[in-house]
Design goal:
The chain is of the alpha/beta class and 292 residues long. The chain has a single domain, classed as Metal-dependent hydrolases (TIM Barrel). The protein is 43% helix and 14% strand. An 8-stranded parallel β-sheet has the order 1-2-3-4-5-6-7-8. Helix 2 packs parallel to helix 4 and helix 4 packs parallel to helix 5. The longest helix has 22 residues. The chain is globular. It starts with 10 loop residues before the first strand and ends in a 13-residue tail after the last helix. The protein binds zinc ion (ZN). The site of zinc ion has 5 residues, from loops.
Length: 292
């Protein structure tokens, strides 16, 4: 087990695990590298795009089962993040037509919302927009579904983990405007897989979750936050190296703290203070370094 800095949990804010991938083994490698807490986002585990509310319910239960297994078998605390993947909408519009596809995404968000209210999950996500250009006729449905996500999360009172193309100041401004329209608190709107560290005011109250590349981490540590770190680990053996490996956040933190013990307060920003500010709870470890 890698030495853990005194009292500091080590948190990956966005990853995926699959029952048919490495699964719990990847969480064990994260733990062995000194990681203690994971935000585990759902994903499609079945072939093809979900076409019914029941398919999404099955998917969410699989994620919740994986989270329990991670806790029991890898000794890592796992927080589930549930929602219909925005790219699903493309196939759903094709197969079901736009109105039924929008309705299906809404139903999936409502069942995710119920699981969050039951405190089995902590956020709605990842929801948002496809990260690639889509046909013009999809623009309306995409925006309608995104608006619905913010409404559901507003009513549940939970954060939203947003999947979208890389955003600049203008992109953040647009989302902040949409959040204001539906009265969703912008401080709970997280842009996941963000790759460029902007001056904090340019996020306009939204919260970046940075892909934990070395240069990005160094730049983020110089900013006040709130911000998070993630690997977006996909646990897909067919796509090794598509994103970062699961132990990366833990390795970055321990490597930096070994060289700069005085950085402890900086690392509390992504691993504790930002989580308290956005989610309303703080990851903790016990005296032996195990997650509480
Ligand atoms: Zn993801």
């Amino acid at each position: 087990m890698a030495a853990t800095a005194a009292g500091l949990p080590v948190v990956d804010h966005h990853c995926h695990l699959s029952p048919t991938g490495e699964g719990i083994g990847a969480a064990r490698r994260f733990r062995a590298a000194g990681g203690t807490h994971l935000f585990l986002a759902t994903q499609n585990y079945e072939a093809g795009v979900p076409l019914s509310p029941e398919a999404y319910e099955r998917q969410f239960e699989t994620t919740l089962g994986l989270a329990r297994a991670v806790e029991a078998e890898a000794g890592v605390r796992a927080y589930a993040v549930l929602g219909p993947y925005p790219v699903d909408l493309v196939g759903q519009v094709e197969r079901l037509g736009a109105p039924a596809a929008i309705e299906l995404q809404g139903r999936a968000m409502e069942s995710a919302g119920r699981l969050i209210e039951e405190q089995r999950a902590v956020a709605l996500g990842e929801v948002g927009r496809p990260h690639f250009p889509t046909a013009p006729e999809l623009a309306g449905p995409v925006e309608e579904v995104l608006r619905r996500a913010l409404e559901v999360a507003r009513d549940v009172g939970c954060p939203v983990v947003l999947h979208a193309e890389e955003l600049g100041p203008e992109g953040f401004r647009g989302l902040v405007g949409l959040a204001a329209q539906v009265e969703f608190p912008v401080g709970r709107l997280i842009k996941h897989y963000h790759r460029s560290v902007l001056p904090t005011p340019e996020y306009q109250g939204m919260v970046p979750s940075y892909l934990a590349r070395r240069e990005t981490v160094a730049a983020a540590l110089a900013t006040p936050g709130p911000w998070f770190l993630e690997t977006d680990f996909l646990d897909d053996p067919a796509r090794p190296g598509a994103v970062l490996d699961l132990p990366t956040v833990a390795r970055r933190a321990h490597h930096d703290l070994a060289q700069h013990p005085d950085h402890l307060a900086l690392w509390e920003v992504p691993f504790q203070r930002s989580i308290q500010q956005v989610y309303g709870f703080t990851p903790e470890i016990d005296a032996r370094g195990n997650p509480r």
